[in-house]
Amino acid sequence: MDWKSAYKGMAAFSGAVTASATHEIKNELAVINEQSGLIKELLMLAAQGREVDPSRLESLISRVIVRIGQADVVIKRLNTFAHSGDLDRDLTNVADSVALVVEFYKRLASIKGLTLELGQMPEALGLAHPPMLFQQAVWACLAGAAEAAEKGGAVVITAAAVNGQTEIKFSANYTQTPQGPSQELLEALGCRLTADSGNLILCMAE
Amino acid sequence: MSEAKVLLVDDEIEFLESASERLGLRGFQVDTAENGPAALAKIEEKIYDAIVLDMMMPGQDGLETLKQALAKKPDLQIILLTGHATVEKGIQAMKAGAMDFLEKPANLDTLAEKIKQGQAKRIQIEQEDRQQAVNDIMKRFGW
């Protein structure tokens, strides 16, 4: 793969992940904004002598804390993703990387009316590739699967070691043939796409 | 002007609960819907002064809901809410017939002001339609 193609693909992938994550954070902030605004207004009413149930305030504050926690989870995930591009990282833990990309893709899948489910994923599976390159391939498979899967259903992602290779399978009820990463990316990763009962499989050397 | 009737549409239930209570404290009559089809059903049943619609929702998104709502009731005043307000999205929303476009998290006082503007515009359109109907009748009878 020449550097321009690699750069374009990586920039588009990083941009899509960042856009999805920041959208999630914005949603959390929108809820926190409304809840904290409501707390302020209820306290103002109380100061004017209106009766305000303290348990109502307590419940709203608890929800604000929960939503801050949820936003923090997305920020930590985004930070993990950012560091998966560190130049000194040339090994990938399959389970961690797939789980990370799946979390980022869940919102987009939900907009398309699909759910993503993580199935069997052995902890010890590793690959001799930089994580971000592998994550880009998983993202492309998820995008292809979400496009081709029957709406209202689920895409189940599993991984297994098969005959010295790592296989990541994207199973769903497909209404058309799912597409995967570009040929250039597959070549850069030294992997190939296969199909089993119509399901999309990413095969790569361990 | 009577209190404005507004329909809040968002898939985030906690957002709906808090925002509707805050708008209620400001004297608005608020209904909520958690998705596009539910919003379209409510629009069929009731006259709203303004619809506040989240742009990104699972299944049927805000823009599609807006188009279907305006196809049913072209005079609806729809304010779109989005996580990231870009110029492109703004143009897309306005071209589709939105009254306005706000970025989340939105300032509730700004939103309340937009809803009031929506109400004023809806009343104006209603009055113009009524006047037009009267003019048509008068013309038909040669008065």
Characterization of this structure:
The complex is a heterodimer of chains A (206) and B (143). By secondary structure, chain A is an alpha+beta fold. Chain A is built from 5 helices and 7 strands. In chain A, helix 1 packs across helix 4 and helix 4 packs antiparallel against helix 5. The two termini of chain A are 21 Å apart. The mean pLDDT of chain A is 91. Chain B has 143 residues and is an alpha/beta fold. Chain B contains 5 helices and 5 strands. Chain B has a 5-stranded parallel sheet, with helices on both faces. The mean pLDDT of chain B is 91. At the A-B interface, helix 1 and helix 2 of A face helix 1 of B.
Short description:
Chain A is of the alpha+beta class and 206 residues long.
Sequence-ordered SSE layout with sheet pairings:
The complex is a heterodimer of chains A (206) and B (143).
Chain A: H1 3-47, H2 54-83, E1 92-93, H3 94-111, E2 115-118, E3 126-127, H4 131-148, E4 154-162, E5 165-171, H5 183-189, E6 191-196, E7 199-205
Parallel strand pairs in A: 2-4
Antiparallel strand pairs in A: 1-3, 4-5, 5-7, 6-7
Helix pairs in contact in A: 1-2, 1-3, 1-4, 3-4, 4-5
Chain B: E1 5-9, H1 13-25, E2 29-33, H2 36-45, E3 50-54, H3 62-72, E4 78-82, H4 87-95, E5 100-103, H5 108-140
Parallel strand pairs in B: 1-2, 1-3, 3-4, 4-5
Percent of residues of chain B in beta strands?
15-25%
Gross morphology of chain A is: elongated
Strand order of the largest sheet of chain A: 2-4-5-7-6
Shape call of chain B = globular
Which key terms come to mind for this protein?
heterodimer; A: 206 residues; alpha+beta; five-stranded mixed beta sheet; 57% helix; elongated; B: 143 residues; alpha/beta; five-stranded parallel beta sheet
